[in-house]
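Reading a protein record of the kind used here takes little practice once its layout is understood. The fold follows as a row of integers, each naming the local backbone shape at the matching residue. With these conventions in mind, the following record can be read line by line:

_____
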Amino acid sequence: MNLNVNNETDKLVSVVLGIANDLDDKPDIDNCIDPKTRESIINDNYPDEIDCIDEIERFANILLKYNIQVLRPKNIKNLNQIFSRDIAFVIENKLFIPEIIKERNFEKKGIDEIINDIEHKIYIPKEAKIEGGDIILYNDIIFIGYSKISSFNNYKVSRTNEKGLEFIRNSFPNKEIYGFELIKDDHDPYKNILHLDCTMQPIGNNQLILYENGFKNKNDVELINKIFGKNNIIKINNKELYNLNTNIFSIDNQTIVSNTSFKKLNTTLESLGYKVEKTKYDEISKFGGLFRCTTLPLERKA
């Protein structure tokens, strides 16, 4: 199996797409690991398994239409296996397998058969915490969302620590590595950035969707503006952050999969010349992730 991922927008060749079959029972509110799941329990609209399966399969059909190889995890009963992004990630030709939070770590078993024959596997040390949603690739740049120790120890939604940031920095000494501290809140989905891809996402060749207030340090936003250029940034507001507008997914640098409900964003993208494949992903979003969160790209070609 070929591995090659250097950015978020080169033509997708192969991807692992999560599954929603045999989800676990609704958790107790005190055991929720993200604020959107918690909110769905409070509002009595916890995601419906059949609807989640339907949404993911519609997404799969879009990918197949573009002749993408779509691999799926092996089904493990009573386990949420929707978000394949976090359990492993590819940088260049290497597959990184992290030790993630205990509530989710068993999800990695679902992709064992997929990754068994991959030669370049790197198991990240347990003390270096990373989830794939915090890793965004931009050619010679790697952006990493993380939390310093006080925030990491105090919030369930803090998933990548300073040791994880340093591990990636040491693994790629020839790349520019930028670590961004993210705003965290276990209870309020309007104030929480679960992963970096929930507040920024590159599209096309040099454009970006960005929620500026997701970063603890304003100088990080200034750096992002400098790298991409202010005229190349599509800014989103707090309601759009809540709806996960940055968590779209690029099939190539001109084709983007987006939620049908993202009316404003989709219109903007189409006005910029993108082809937008629209499909409903509202039930999936109640778990705190969207299209990018459900995908683990293995190979992209420039």
Remarks:
- The radius of gyration is 18 Å.
- The domain at 11-301 is CATH 3.75.10.10 (L-arginine/glycine Amidinotransferase; Chain A).
